[in-house]
Automatic annotation (TrEMBL):
Annotated region (Disordered), positions in chain: 331-351
UniProt-recorded name of the protein: DUF3800 domain-containing protein
The organism's place on the tree of life at top rank: Bacteria
Amino acid sequence: MTWDHVNGTVAADAAGIREIACDESGSDGENLTGGNTDVFAHASVLLSAASAAGHVQEIRDRIRSPAEEYKANHLLREKHRAVLEWLLSPSGPLHGRAHVHLVEKPFYIVDRAVDLLLDDPGAAVSLFAEGRRTFTGEEWTSFLEAANHLLWVRHDEPPDTPHTPVARFFHLVDTLRGRHPGTPAADVLGRLSEERPRALSYRAGIQDGPFVLAPVLNPLLPSILHTAAHWSDGGRPVRLAHDRQNMLTPERIAWIEGEARRRGIRLAGLRLVVSRFDARVQLADFLAGIARRIASDELNGRGDPALSALLRPYTGAAAVWGDERSWARLGPARESGGPSAPVDSRAQGLS
């Protein structure tokens, strides 16, 4: 094992492989409209175990809570604002050694539904922007819920009837087209309305291995691939150490590793660890929870400019994000100084 003594990071093991510690926040499985959060965050850090342990101990010394296990909420309390700002600051322990992949759940639903039916990233961006402007709040929520249920992997669906996800989704599409004729949103809905056979084919094959193994709506697996792609950029092999998660079965880990090979991502492996025994994963857990809260607040118009600015160096341009206003504050800045636009995951082959 070789070390970067200046930054406290593990440069690589004897085989030239760096290990990245990961955790997530905001996971609701495929229930993206009925869950507790509107943002999913996948965080990763590159630090040695000893360095990470020292940083976790410093956080504990600064916060001085009697809690046995610290979580992001400890850092997000107003009385610990100074600790939070130190953690994210350019002089803090994570700067240049951590990354966050963000997913805006409402946009993710639209993106996945349009990908299934039209395979047109531009249509997803258009429908998300125009739909929110054109439909009432209740109509937009109903559309998201119908799209969520259309894609949700279930094992007990009856043949297509007025009560199935396919029938409900296309009935709502036709209803919204009728209520808002001539609008850009209705134009995209018109294209969707012609793709009922695709939706029926998807539902008919939903119990097949690929859909059960890698559900279309669960953002965790593609986020792990994004993380591996980020850290292996330039051809550097990486191994991921991820906090234990029910979704990460041996079969799905094998799928992730296979997909990485297929897409040219230098992922040497993925192993599961218990966060309370790995300070690196604890720091990833802190960062994921902090990023999710900051991003959600920004998305909902109650963002803290200082915290959003501190988060920006960690966010990746490959975020699955549709709200331009909030992304202008959260996304990594271009070299010219302006904010980067959200990047559709399919453009990078990582959906």
